[in-house]
Specification:
With 65 residues, the protein is an alpha+beta fold. It has one helix and four strands, in the order ββββα.
Length: 65
């Protein structure tokens, strides 16, 4: 069962966006759309059911968030 929750929050320092580099040599920039992703202080685990940002990361990474 997949719990939709952030444990380690992604960066937001570039106009609320973050770059991802992948082993195959390509990279992608994603601008965060869900306000729950924009937590600026460590908050531990934060539930985020239905977050488009969570699923964007989930679908592109092998180590699931």
């Amino acid at each position: 069962m997949n719990k939709e929750e952030w444990i380690d929050f992604p960066g937001y320092y570039h106009n609320f966006a973050c770059g991802f580099a992948f082993a195959d040599g390509h990279s992608e920039v994603h601008k965060w759309k869900d306000g729950r992703t924009l937590i600026t202080q460590s908050a531990g685990r934060v539930s985020c059911p239905g977050s488009v940002d969570y699923w964007w990361v989930h679908d592109r990474t092998s180590e699931k968030p």
